[in-house]
Amino acid sequence: MMGELASALLLAWYASTEPTGVFPIFMIAILYGGSRAFLAPSMRPIAANIAPEGRLPQMIALYSTVWTSAGIIGPAASGFLYSASPVLAYLVGSALILCAIASFSAVRVPPTRRVGNAAGESHAGESHAGASGERPTLRSAVEGLRYIRRTPILFAAIALDLFAVLFGGAVALLPVIAEERLGVGNIAYGWLRAAAGIGAGSVALLLAIRPLRRHVGKWLLVAVGVFGVGTIVLGLTRTYWIAFVAILVIHGADMVSVFVRGSIVPLVTPDDKRGRV
Question: Does the pTM of the predicted model rise above 0.70?
């Protein structure tokens, strides 16, 4: 989180210098991406560790609803803020990250329970490294990949989503699509980004009320198919409202995939491997 805060502050500073080069932006992007690489795996296991028994699917859906609600309000507001002043937009982002750091520091995660090794041993309140005396190494880091490969349900869910997003993700191209294909400005672009949150948030709210309980694999395949069709439509259209609807559909379908993976991964992954998986 501190890396994200530093990235936002650096962007505010760079925007104030009337920049003409992109190299500093790439450097800031590397800092931000590196911070996210550490943040995401460390946050993912927390929901499973603090959720009451049997309530994990609902907690994941509600968490996703809050996350995507911010994804609606943030991009929509950012279009207006950026039109007023790029520096103001980044400073507001920095202030919100500070609020997130303060909120996250109030979360209390109970000690994890390490369930059994091959000999059936069980250790409560110990981390994997602490229980075995093993220091973290590259080998222990890639153990998460080995565990995914050995667990068909994990491998199928993660691989399917990985390839769909890797080859079909179009969010990074939205600035180009908005400017060159749709011919719109900052505010309209902000609403395009907000459409992602609207679509995902609507589906997340539905899943919080009626979570998937049967035929989860079938729903995952359908969601990935809808994601692909929506991406094709977004790539072909030159009409703003069609692009808006396509983004709604894309991220609504992606939320189904997020829900399925978010429910499966914590339930089938041992505590000592959750961050790595």
Answer: no
